[in-house]
Amino acid sequence: MELPDPDETSRRDYLRSLVAVGGTAALSACLDLTGDESGSGVPTGDPVERPARQHAWNDALGTDDDGNPRPPEHHVLVPLSLTTTPDADASDTVEAAFQSLERAYAHDPAGLLFTVGYSPAYFAQVSSEKPIPAPEAITTLESPEFDEFDAVVHFASDKAAVVMEAEQALLGETDEPNGVEMDATLEGVFERAEPRRTGFVGPGLPAEHTGLDGVPDSVPEEAPFFMGFRSGFAESQAPEERVTIQDGPYAGGTTMHVESLTLQLQTWFEQDNHFQRVSKIYSPEHGEEELAGDVGEKLGTSTGVAGEIAERTEQDARERGMVGHAQKAARARDDNGTPPLLRRDFNTVDNEVPGVHFLSLQRSIDEFVRVRQAMAGEDLAGEGVGQRLNNGILQYIFVRRRGNFLLPPREDRALLEA
Amino acid sequence: MTRHSPGRRTDRLSRRAFLAAGAAATGALAGCIGGDDEDGNGNGGNGTNGDEGDGEPSSPDVVNSSNAPTTPSVEDPPDAVYLPTHQESMEHLETVEAGEYAVMPMLTYPHKFWLVSGTEREAVTPDSTGVHLMATVWDAETGEVLPVDTGAQLRLTRDGDLVDQRAPWPMISQTMGFHFGDNVPLPEQGTYAVEFDLTPIGGDTVRKTGEFADRFTEPRTVRFEFEFDQEFQESVVNGVEYLEEDQWGDRGALEPMAGMGGMNGEMEDGAGDDDMDDGGDGNGSEGGMEMSMPFSALQPADAYLGTDLGTLASGDATFVVRYLTETRLTDGSSGYLLVSPRTPYNRVPLADTALAVEGALEGELIQTLDSELGHHYGIAGDLASDEQLDLVVESPPQVARHRGYETAFLEMPPMTVEVP
């Protein structure tokens, strides 16, 4: 892929484009642009300061004005395939590589947050255990491809240069990330697989992509997500403890599902009206009572769909001819109202098509499937709402790909079982 | 068909330049030919694309031509099915089959239609060059149109690159009945390939009965191609036929369009001629000959068996109501109340409606697709002479509407049913 033209795009869009392109040329272009700030601005770190859970990011994240955790802006999911049979030496190499990154960058969105996860294909090679199932289609509306590589590293940072540099350093494609020497890399153990995925999240970032065919000019300026609304409200997210595996050999770890979606934004923004969008994202009540504001800014830290609104989902389908996405999902919460999923999803324009990499952490993949089925609302379809029609946001999302991963606790993250 | 030369798609810069040029052309055209639809409901009402202007014509961007239709609209249509000012022309592609399904794709210029959410309608006004892409789906075995939201989706590609992916709306039109359709913006002229995915019918969406009970369970994909060019744009525009002005807005409906009937002969050439080979995995050998398209008409009221509980009306829809005692539609322990809502005149089924009964029989009616009785809503139960019940429309049909159907089937008061 060719590098983008810096004269043609905004600075942030340009940085995002460089992350999507990847590679050493993109990294050096990025460092040229941000060099004066990243040279001194990116904090280095110490492996001993990293928490025991790989997925323990919340304490490091900043918060928005309402107190919701603010996700890092730039993301890369790097797929990996084994090139050797895992053994103790390989494991030591991999751990040394990860610890090198932890020295190069602080555990902070200004530095680098990352996790490493292993797929069912990995476990099939190293173990008789099957701690996570192979991914499969979850709804009748999809025929997805599946992630079949062995491992994935999720890099996240507010700095575009950091996610690129960390990825390349880990694979031995650049030396001395953030000025710190790598003791080891993944070379000889892992190689790159397909597909590499990238993305971004944050107010204003989606609206910077209106140059693409699939992104209409009507994406709200301040929207943090392509669909135009805030998401990831503190109250809609599982606490990290809720997604942490409690017992057994993987205690302290979690599972990750990555669902890659294409979005139909032209229909969403140019055909539906604001009332319909609010109703379909949150609930018809939110639409009628104007509870959300332009991009969900009126909602504070909670969508308010848990409880009464979730309970009337079926009734809304019949009597209002429409149900909300959040409303449907809230039906799958725990009895005490706790959501079972911790979403760390991000927008993408991979392949120049707007989409979402819906990355979700949960204690078990079963829980993801249960919540996702509630979101699909196939039980609601029939009278009033259709399989897609007026059934949340199903009219506008298309599942392309799914993958399941186990994220072991940090101490076991290097080729576990090897 | 023309294929494009190896110089694959443009980089981003030139594509942007093209888009900018296209927008300018559209704007210029809008200035020339005046507006359509001064009903104040235009332009989606979302206020975000207002700079395109309410006066934008819902017509194709036929640059270098003065024959874009300045279709007038009925000023104050009744809250009922009405005759529009004109009948659209469209290009019918060849029927393609896959598994149990047959699909006829059709194309015309992007035009106004209305989405329905609850009892609210929202006008969709086209604001970019492209096509209104439609598809009627029927059972290849019986020829019965399958008038339910199956969650169909399509992917549009050009030279292998994804141009658009969307779930076309379930829609009703006076001339085409139940179909799937949407305005699809196309960045430029050329040959486009479409993969149209049909998802299984059933689950909770619709109860299938009779011969349909075990059918339509596999997802299938049909593929077709079309040419988007000046010739197409001009032909669909030139084919618009106006009704006599004194009929505009009268209660009534355009005649159903049956296949190629009524279309210009020249529609038979054009896109799709050579793509039958990959027309799905059925034996499409007879597909090339099959030029007619079934229309989703339900049986007339007098064709239904059982006790006649009346032919009722609400929101200008007609409700055929029957009570069946001898029926395979229940487990045999009770009777069956059958309610078949349809459009007046053309008897198009009204899908995705929420119906309930109160009184002598109480409960929600289940949307049902029966191989003999067709699309209807039903509930098992027993009724006796002189009993009375209310038929309540909890949500009107949520299907999108072509012109002439958008003011009907929205406010639908309850009906009283009396058992003779």
Topology (elements, then pairings):
The complex is a heterodimer of chains A (418) and B (420).
Chain A: H1 11-21, H2 23-41, E1 62-63, E2 69-70, E3 74-82, H3 88-104, E4 113-118, H4 120-126, E5 145-146, E6 151-157, H5 160-170, E7 190-192, E8 197-200, H6 240-243, E9 254-263, H7 265-270, H8 274-281, H9 284-288, H10 308-311, H11 313-319, H12 325-330, E10 342-343, E11 346-348, E12 355-362, H13 365-376, E13 397-407
Parallel strand pairs in A: 5-13
Antiparallel strand pairs in A: 1-2, 3-6, 3-7, 3-8, 4-6, 9-12, 9-13, 10-12, 11-12
Chain B: H1 12-33, E1 86-87, E2 91-92, E3 96-98, E4 101-108, E5 113-117, E6 120-124, E7 130-139, E8 153-158, E9 161-166, E10 169-173, E11 177-185, E12 190-198, E13 207-209, E14 220-228, H2 230-238, E15 241-242, E16 307-314, E17 317-324, E18 336-342, E19 354-359, E20 363-364, E21 366-370, E22 374-380, E23 388-395, E24 400-401, E25 415-418
Parallel strand pairs in B: 10-24, 13-21
Antiparallel strand pairs in B: 1-15, 2-4, 3-4, 4-7, 5-6, 7-11, 8-9, 8-12, 10-11, 12-14, 16-17, 17-18, 18-22, 19-20, 19-23, 21-22, 23-25
Overall SS class of chain B: mainly beta
The parts of chain B where pLDDT drops under 50 for at least 5 residues are 1-68, 259-291
Total beta strands of chain B:
25
- Shape by Cα distribution of chain A: globular
Number of strands of chain A: 13
Poorly predicted regions of chain A are: none
Structural class of chain A: alpha+beta
Strand content of chain A: 15-25%
